[in-house]
Specification:
The structure is a single chain. The chain is α+β, with helices and mostly antiparallel strands. It is 27% helix and 36% strand. Strands 3, 4, 5, 10, 11, 12, 13, 14, 16 and 17 form a ten-stranded antiparallel β-sheet that branches. A hairpin with a 7-residue loop joins strand 4 (49-53) and strand 5 (61-65). It is globular and about 55 Å long.
Length: 348
Amino acid sequence: MNIISNKIEGSFENKLPFVAYRKPNSVEVSGFFMNDDDLEFSSEINESGFVFAPFNSDEKAVIFSADKAEIINEKFNLNEELTLNISNSVVNSSDKLKHLKLVEKTIEEIKKNALKKVVVSRKEEVQLHKFDVLITFKKLLKTYSNAFVYVWFHPKVGLWLGATPETLLNIFDNNFKTMSLAGTQVYKTNEEVIWKAKELDEQQLVTDFINNQLKNISSKLKIEKTETVKAGNLLHLRTKVEGVLNEEASLKQIIRGLHPTPAVCGLPREKAKDFILKNEHYNRTFYTGFLGELNIEKKSSLFVNLRCMNVKDKVATLYIGGGITKESNPQKEWEETIAKSKTIKQVL
């Protein structure tokens, strides 16, 4: 058995904070394991450790300090058989009605307002007959090789797991990489991938936003050709962006510039965020926030918290959203959230 597997089980049992994670397309799992349950927050994003930040950038991010953690990196053995569940769970009809009404209201608001896009979401609760934190983490690792996969726990905050396809920021010295990710369709074997104008426009909005946010604090900005990427049973449009951060610019500035991205919030950002906070009628907390390594050996590697769940008292709360533009169709948007929730449900 891996050292990290033992540490996950021991820390969870003893109610000690920890995070274990694997970066996309890697075979190595890393872990930060804390010796006490102190709750520390990052204010200036200049600490060194593992950061877990909420969607609402006005709220504080939790930090596991590198100098207080036992940090382990190891190749992770996933040879055992792990059975995935085919999800046939029935979604509450009132949940569907609520989400359709929210999408309709969002489309109306976009048509009469200065809004171009708003990402609205919902949460879905799944009753768990039995739940094993380590097995669930291993299932995520095995299912999502090209995602950032993690399990994060703090007894004063809760237990979160996820497999996100979206990088917020990779930065080493002053060289950074980010991406715009938008548009979703279900992957179908041997079928040609065709993207409609709605998804292509949505993707372009995100790319343009990133360009505008970064052009004044960076140089050598390079925007690559948009490509299709697979995440679980879903396809997305992705555009990679890279550049060099200006000497007078800080990590905090670039994060504030990017987070929350239009892929999880909307455009214009502040108007979209205001609409979300007033109309979603639940608190996203860490869903669509960001998490990852902060200032570890001059590197930061941060990911947007998508395809995630919060587990408490044998209930897994899943979070699912979609980008709404004036061309959106409420029924199709609902179906997209069903496809997204199926992806994460199969590991429960």
